[in-house]
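Hi all, long-time lurker, first post. I run a small reading group and we've been trying to get comfortable going from sequence to structure in the token notation. Rather than ask abstract questions, I figured I'd post a concrete chain and ask someone more experienced to write out its structure so we can walk through it together at our next meeting. Sequence below, copied exactly:
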Amino acid sequence: MESHQDHAHEEPTESQLTLEEARLTIGDLISLQAHRGDIVERYTVRLIGMSKGRSVLVTTPMVDGHYLFMREGLALILRAFSGRSAYAFPTQILKSVNTPYPYLHLSYPRLVRSLVVRRGARADVRVICAITHCDGVPIEAAGTIINLSIGGALITTARIPGKKGQRLTIKFKVVLNGIEALLDLDTVIRAINVDQSGDSETPYQIGVQFTDVSAEDSIPLLAFVYQALLEQVPGA
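-- Answer (accepted) --
Happy to help. Here is the structure in token form:
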């Protein structure tokens, strides 16, 4: 069984700081996570203001063009990215305001958890992909991406699509804020691992490195990886 250190998780560096030190920018996309019983709901909103020690102001979430009713007192986890750092803190809705436009006052945090996201940081995902070429020769194979970075991926497959050092072309879809993007990426096989237990229908783990990613593909890839990492940042 082969392994390769490129495909190990590179842990983010964690620290705690104040919200002012996080240097979030007005207009930044913010992720809000709410637990309603056993259901986890996630909303994407924008930061519109901060009053130190008082409240954090964000837009009211929308679904299908309609503003959601957000109950005052609802506990949330707020997550955001700035530069190469991810930030998270627990908060709650202090006030839901409808005029002159809908927005929320959230409780101001005493401290914020900060994680520096390194280039090799991998997000745990589950994304179906198609493997369409091996060294330029058309093939038909399917796999599941189980972790993903901006530089590569780990794919589980039922059969080996190529040998270490060969080039694969993979295609997969990502969805960001309701918008779907199809990525078509050239890769190189860097590692092949085999599950010897016999219990898995997809016993092969193929570690690939992305090569020559186009600008058209790099933007949704980066956004998807950061969004997935953001959702994995602990909130407290």
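A couple of things your group might point at:
DSSP finds two helices and 16 strands in the chain.
The helical segments are 19-22, 215-232.
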